[in-house]
Amino acid sequence: MLVARGTIGYIAPEVFCRNIGVVSYKSDVYSFGMLVLEMVGGRKNINVEVECTSEIYFPYWIYKRIELNEELALRNIMDDSDREKIKKMILVSLWCIQTNPSDRPTMHRVVEMLEGNVETLQVPPKPFLSSPSVSPHSSPSH
C-alpha cells in the first residue's frame, strides 16, 4: 500500500502510524467497529459542535458510559431488549477499535460475539488513542 485512503475517523491507526502495527484484515475490523458505533449513536464519531470536549469523540464518550454503567442516553431505545442489543453492539465495536491490531477480534469472532449473549462480553480496555480520562459530566475544557 503506497497511500493511505479512507474516511478520517474510520482509518485504523496502523495505516498512518506504522509503529502500531502492519495494515491487515484487522484494519478493516477497526473500520467496521467505528461504523457500528456511528450507527448505534446516530451521529458521526466526531461532533465538533458540542461544548464539552469529552463528548467530541463519541467512542470515548460511550466507553465512559459503559465503564460507569450509566444510562446510554441514545435515541430509539424502546425497551430492555433494544437496550441489550445496543449494549452488545457497543461492546463489540469497542473491541474492534482497539489501537493494537492484535487486540482486535477477527470478523469471525465479531459475528460470534454479536450472535452471543451480552452477559458473556467483557468491557474492553480503553483504546490508547482515546481522549484523556475525564468524567463525561465534567465542566468544559478548552
UniProtKB/TrEMBL annotation:
Q: Which InterPro entries match?
A: Kinase-like_dom_sf, LRK10/LRL21-25-like, Prot_kinase_dom
Q: What is this protein called?
A: Protein kinase domain-containing protein
- Places the protein is found: Membrane
An example GO CC term for this entry is: membrane
PANTHER family to which the protein is assigned, alphabetical: RUST RESISTANCE KINASE LR10-RELATED
Q: Residue ranges of the Protein kinase domain?
A: 1-129
Q: List keywords of the entry alphabetically.
A: Glycoprotein, Kinase, Membrane, Serine/threonine-protein kinase, Signal, Transferase, Transmembrane, Transmembrane helix
Recorded GO molecular functions are: ATP binding; protein serine/threonine kinase activity
Question: Is Transmembrane among the key words of this record?
Answer: yes
Topology relative to the membrane: Single-pass type I membrane protein
Pfam families (UniProt xref): Pkinase
